[in-house]
Amino acid sequence: MKITVVGAGAVGATSADNIARKELASELVLLDIKEGVAEGKALDMTQTAALFGFDTRITGSTNDYAKTADSDVVVITSGLPRKPGMTREELIGTNASIVKGVTESLLKHSPNAIIVVVSNPMDTMTYLTLTTSGLPKNRIIGMGGILDSARFKCYLSAALGCSPNDLNAIVVGGHGDTTMIPLMRFATWNSVPVTEFLSAEQQQKIIADTMVGGATLTKLLGTSAWYAPGAAVAALVESIVRDEKRLYSCSVGLEGEYGQKDICLGVPVVIGRNGWEKVIDYKLNEQEQATFSKSADAVRNMNDVLKTL
Ligand SMILES: NC(=O)c1ccc[n+]([C@@H]2O[C@H](COP(=O)([O-])OP(=O)(O)OC[C@H]3O[C@@H](n4cnc5c(N)ncnc54)[C@H](O)[C@@H]3O)[C@@H](O)[C@H]2O)c1
C-alpha cells in the first residue's frame, strides 16, 4: 500500500505522522511546494520509526510528482489555512487553483488513487475535484464531518462527564461554522439518547460550541488546528486501506440522497477499500431536513463562486 500526502504543513505532516504510526502503508510520500520542507519532515518522522516501532518507509518530495507514482490513496491538504476572524469560505480563490493543479498532477502518476480532500472550504474543494477530475464519485471523499463529529463528542463528553469512547454522535451538512449540523437527536451514550441527560440549554450550548469548534482553536492558535484534523484523516485512511466499512460523516457527491444533487456535502457513508461505498439514510425529521437543505444552499452558493474564478 502506498499513500501520498500533499501539503507538508501542520495538517499534512500530522496526518502523515499518524498514518506512519498506524502502519497504514508500506510506503508514504509527503510532498510540498516549499523547497526541502517535505524531505525534512519525512526524515524527522523516519527517525521516530525505531522509537514507535513502525516499518513504513517515508520519503519527502519538493513538487516532484513522479515520486508519488502508483499511490493507492492520496490526501490533499495543500492550501492556505484560515487566520483568526476568517471563515473557511474566504480561502476559496487561492485554494481552488492549488487543489485543481495538485489533483491533475497526482492523477497523472496515480490514476487509480482514492482522493481524500482536506483543504478548505472543503465541501467546495471536494466538489471541484469531483467535477474536474472525471473520476468515479466513490473515489473522492471530503474529510470534515469526522473531525466535526469528534469535536461534538468532545463537548458532549465534557457535559456528561463520560468517556468520548462511549458516545455515538455525528455531524452532517457543510463543514463550515454556520453550515454544519450536529445531530443531537441521534447522539447516544452507550445506546441511551443523550437528550435524556442534558437540558435543552445544555444541548444548545454543545451544538453552538461544536459549530465554532474550529474557530475557537483558530483564535487560540493564530492558525487552524492540526492534531484532531490529522487524527481524523488517519481514521478515514485507515477505514479505506483496511476495508473497515466504518460509518463516517464525509463530504461526497450526492445524486438525490438527502434531497440533494450536484453537490458534495457531509452525510453518513460507509468507507472501505473502494472509497465511499454507500450513503446511509438517517431519516431526518422535517426540521433536520430543512436545516440540511439550508446548509446545502449555502454550500451551493460557495460552489457558484468557482464559476467566477
Ligand atoms: N477539512 C478539515 O477538517 C480541515 C481541518 C484543518 C485544516 N483544514 C485545511 O487544510 C489546509 C491546510 O492547513 P494547514 O494548517 O496544514 O496549513 P499549512 O499552511 O500549515 O500547510 C499548507 C501546506 O500546503 C503547501 N502548499 C501550498 N501550495 C501547494 C502546492 N501547490 N503544492 C503542494 N503544497 C502546497 C504549503 O507550502 C504548506 O506547507 C487549509 O486549507 C486548512 O483550512 C481542513
Give the key terms.
single chain; six-stranded parallel sheet; binds nicotinamide-adenine-dinucleotide; alpha/beta; globular; 309 residues; Rossmann fold; three-stranded antiparallel sheet; 10 helices; 2 domains; 14 strands; L-2-Hydroxyisocaproate Dehydrogenase, Chain A, domain 2
Describe the sheet with the most strands: 6 strands, parallel
General shape: globular
Number of domains: 2
Say which CATH homologous superfamily of the largest domain is assigned: Lactate dehydrogenase/glycoside hydrolase, family 4, C-terminal
Can you give a write-up of this model?
With 309 residues, the protein is an alpha/beta fold. It has 2 domains: 142 residues, Rossmann fold, CATH 3.40.50; 164 residues, L-2-Hydroxyisocaproate Dehydrogenase, Chain A, domain 2. The protein is 42% helix and 22% strand. It has 10 helices and 14 strands. The chain is globular. The model has no long low-confidence stretch (mean pLDDT 97). Nicotinamide-adenine-dinucleotide binds next to α1 and α4.
What is shown here, in short?
This protein has helices spanning 10-21, 37-46, 49-52, 92-109, 122-133, 145-160, 200-211, 213-221, 227-241, 286-306, and strands at residues 2-6, 27-32, 57-62, 73-76, 114-117, 140-142, 167-168, 171-173, 180-182, 188-189, 192-193, 246-255, 261-272, 275-279. The protein is an alpha/beta fold and 309 residues long.
